[in-house]
Amino acid sequence: MNLQSEIQYFSELRVLDKARLLNSFLHELAEEARSTYGPGNEQVSDTAHLRFVNELVHRVTRVLEQLLAEDRTRPADDVVLRMLLSPRSDKVAEKLVLNAYRRAIHGFERYDTTVLMNT
Q: pTM higher than 0.90, yes or no?
């Protein structure tokens, strides 16, 4: 995945489409987080990555709120995409995010949006 092309693509989207894409990403990230726990309340197998996902959801939902409110103090598009897609030293966390992002962007294409990216 080419980070710069993803930033450029995201920057060209309308505000509502940015919000739709980030919402789809959060849905897919929650799906990825299911790998960190089992069916029972006491069966969390990977607390560190479950916490990582929770913290990322917290940050992205704030960005969504700022986008929809047209808050001029929100993080720039490149900052948001770098927060999500930059390489991480924790490769498990990186995989959780990239898997979720790939599914979100592919699902987003089905909404009559042309995506020019290398996947």
A: no
Closest CA to 93 of 47, 35, 52: 52
Q: What percent of the chain is predicted at pLDDT more than 90? A: 83
**What does each C-alpha distance from 110 to 40, 71, 80, 105 come to in angstroms?**
35, 28, 23, 9
SS3 category, 37: strand
d(CA 78, CA 62): 16
**What does the chain come to in residues?**
119
Q: State both tokens at 55.
A: 């913290």
Residue 85 and residue 113: Cα distance in Å, rounded? Answer: 21
